[in-house]
Structure formats: C-alpha cells, structure tokens
Design brief:
By secondary structure, the chain is α+β, with helices and mostly antiparallel strands. It has two domains: 88 residues; 227 residues, 2-Layer Sandwich (BirA Bifunctional Protein, domain 2), CATH 3.30.930.10. Helices cover 40% and strands 19% of the residues. The protein contains eleven helices and nine strands. The strands form two sheets. The chain has a seven-stranded mixed β-sheet with strand order 1-4-5-9-8-7-6, sandwiched between helices. The longest helix is centred in the N-terminal third of the chain and has 34 residues. The termini are far apart. It binds 3,4-dihydroxyphenylalanine. The site of 3,4-dihydroxyphenylalanine (DAH) has 11 residues, from β8 and β9.
C-alpha cells in the first residue's frame, strides 16, 4: 500500500513535466488533486488500514499530497511565465519600421540659396505682408490708378484700397520709408495673381532686392546680378541685360541667361531664342524717392525682382509649375 502512494507520486510528477498549457494543467488538477482525484481517493482508503499503521501511512500520504500540490503550483507558474514570454517576444532580426522623413521643399531650398548668395554680398533679409495696401503695391511704385498692371484680371482685390500683393516690390517702399541709406535688402515671399497654366499659379514666390547709397550706378547693378547668376547657375552661364520698362525703374533691364536646356542652340523652352528671362531690374526711378523722402540728388540705387518658381524650374529642368504644389512625393523626394 505504501508503494502504491509512491508510485502515484512518481506518475503524477512525470505527467506534470509533459504539461505545457493551462488546459492540460487543469485536467491534471482534477485527475489528481480534485475531490474525486487519485490522491484524494487514495487518502480516503487510509481508514481501511489497521489502526497501528495509520499514523505512518497518513504522514506519507500527506507528504505526497503536499509534493504533488507544490509541483502543480510550480508548473502553473512555469506555464504563466512561458505565455508572457511568447506574448512579449521581440524578434531583433525583423527589419525595423522606417520613419518617413520629410525633406525641404524645392521652393524653400531655392529661396534659401538665393538669400544665401545675397547675404554673402551684404544684403539683409526682410519680410512683409501679403495682404497689402494699394499704396505700397502700386501707388508709391509709380503705378497710377489707370495703369494696365492693375487690371482686375491680374490683381486679387480685397477691397478698393487693399490687394493681395502682386509682387514683392512694395517691400522696397516699406524699407525705404523706415530707414535712411545705405539700404541693402532682399525680400523673399509669396505673391498673388489671377493666372493659372503650366507656367503660372495664382500664388507664387518672388525675391525682391534693393540697394540704395551714394554714388550707385548701373555698373553696380550689372556686377551684382552677374555675380548672382554665376553663383546660382554656374560660372560658365552666359547672361545678357536687355532693355525693358518698369514704372519704378529708369533705366530698366531684364536679365536673360543662356538657355539651360539647349545651351543657346534654340529649343521649345527658350522659344528658339537661345535665351531665358530670369529677372527684372533697373535703377530706382527718382519718382519713387519722392514717396519715401529720399533726395535723388544725393542718393541713387538699383532694384531687382525675380520669380523663385521660374529660377527653380530652370535650375532643375522642371517644365510644369503645378508640380511644386501637388505634393506628389515622387516629385518632392528628388530634391
Ligand atoms: N515687380 C516686378 C514684377 O513682378 C519685377 C521687378 C522688375 C522688380 C524690376 C524690380 C525691378 O525690383 O527693378 O514683374
């Protein structure tokens, strides 16, 4: 009978070793330790023993019950731990999850590049309002009320006297109004015109430049803009100054660069001229000094303005301006 209980213990402990889940463990508990389980049933049989053998057999039976119970508890812990391990398993060999990294928008990039070139030459960066008074956008730039540039087809009017600025030139007036020469500024920012096709968007970007001091001449304008073009497009890039007209400059010149696509041979991009216009410029018309209180007998200066999208399109060979504003990752990732 004593051997019987020890056999039972051996069998129980061996079986416990083969159990790896909670269901198996519960089946085991019922089979051995439950009310009708093998261990319990066996203990009941003790009463059939002769009284003098009962104490020893009882002690042994209790020992077996405690052993089996302890091993059962240990198995329970082992299985719980295993489950936790499986659930929190970290496979360090799996490829990592990539973070989508943003990039600088090409327009921002070109703006920064233009600014960097002029800052090196001593220009200061200024910014101003996009919703602008008619006075700064037109009037003080010598663009009177009946000037064609004010046409409703080009300008977004907010009210009779307020517009969305159509160029960055109003910053020339704002700066001159608030400071006496020497003045050397560039003003990047958004401008607005009622226009939309492959080379025009209703909102686009310009950079304005202004330099006023004593003894400034057209050669300063030429030298400054030539240096800019060389730094921006490469020292081998040919450029030319072509006579033009702007109400706020006299004389005025537009700057063309040798076509970056055909190198001057003539192609669709340059309309077979071999040249591409990149900016407008000129000597400050004394008429605008009148508005800001500068003495044209003492001071002279030059100004220029360029479209940033256009510079970016020429620099990177992009033929559709709308691409800048479609947020197509395949386009943006290239910069
Ligand atoms: N504001 C002119 C435009 O948007 C560009 C321009 C021309 C700016 C000549 C200037 C300048 O400062 O001198 O078309």
């Amino acid at each position: 009978m004593m051997d019987g209980i020890l056999d039972l213990q051996k069998k129980a402990l061996e079986e416990l070793d083969t159990i790896h889940d909670r269901n198996g463990l519960e089946t085991f508990r019922i089979a051995y330790l439950g009310k009708k389980g093998l261990v319990t049933t066996w203990m009941k049989k003790l009463s059939a023993l002769a009284p003098e053998r009962r104490p020893e057999a009882g002690r042994l039976a209790n020992q077996v019950k405690m052993n089996v119970t302890r091993c059962y508890e240990e198995a329970k812990e082992r299985i719980a731990l295993q489950k936790e391990k499986v659930e929190s398993f970290l496979d360090v060999t799996l490829p990592g999850r990539r973070f989508a990294r943003g990039s600088v928008h090409p327009i921002t990039k070109v703006t920064q590049e233009i600014c960097r070139i002029f800052v090196k030459m001593g220009f200061r960066i200024v910014e101003g309002p996009e919703v602008e008074w008619d006075y700064y956008n037109f009037e003080a730039l010598n663009i009177p009320k009946d000037h064609p540039a004010r046409d409703m087809q080009d300008t977004f009017y907010v009210s009779d006297n307020v517009v969305l600025r159509t160029h960055t030139s109003p910053m020339e007036v704002r700066v001159m109004e608030s400071q006496t020469p020497p003045v050397r500024i560039i003003a990047p920012g958004k401008v607005y015109r009622r226009d939309s096709d492959v080379t025009h968007t209703p909102m686009f970007h310009q950079v304005e430049g202004l330099l006023v001091d004593k003894g400034i001449s057209f050669s300063d304008l030429k030298g400054t803009l030539t240096s800019f073009v060389h730094q921006m497009f490469g020292y081998e890039t040919a450029l030319r100054f072509r006579p033009s007209f702007f109400p706020f400059t006299e004389p005025s010149a537009e700057v063309d660069i040798r076509c970056v696509i055909c190198k001057g041979k003539g192609c669709r991009t340059c309309s077979n001229t071999g040249w591409l216009e990149i900016l407008g410029s000129g000597m400050n018309d004394p008429a605008i000094y009148k508005f800001v209180g500068y003495d044209p007998e003492v001071y002279s200066g030059f100004a220029f303005g360029m479209g940033i999208e256009r510079v970016a399109m020429l620099k990177y060979g992009i033929d559709d301006i709308q691409l800048f504003y479609k947020n197509d990752m395949r386009f943006l990732r290239q910069f």
